[in-house]
Amino acid sequence: MELPSVKEMTSLHTLAKNVDYTLRVHGAKSVLIVSDYEGEGKSTFLKSCAPVISELYEKKILIFDCQDDEKSSAELSELLSTPRLSYVRESELTFLNTLPPSEKISSLAAYFYELCKSYDIVFVNMKTSRRAEKTVFPYVPLDGAIIVRSKKSVGKMDKHVTEELRDREIPILGLVYNEGAL
Question: If we measure between CA atoms, which residue out of 125, 93, 121, 92 comes closest to residue 107?
Fold first, then answer.
């Protein structure tokens, strides 16, 4: 694995400092990481930024991955060797499969609530889907969202996830521009 350049590390430290500050100011603990289009760099943002926040501010962080995407899982599972950083995929919560549909949502929310008690920050990595396809946010309590954008979405008028965040009154805590995503 290639080490980041001094410029990249400086940028990551600045990003981590800004994210930490924003979370503290808003009292946000569970934060949704979203984008309007697939492939904009949500997992890359988490893989790069979460370890820096954890290290700089000695924060215990959980990444709750709702994507069930092999690329995302492979990228984020690398973080397991980082102290104070945990990673869990929604698909690993097999106890949900044994419950009747009427109990799944409340059980997931209760499990997530209990899980949050053990962490300083919980980042929820959400799979992107179009509003027209009835975007379904995870059934977990969310304090806010960070939107990840790339060249793919800058300047486009349709911002499905942004509209959905506003409709559901989930505060938008920040916007990250990922220059590396195509």
Answer: 93
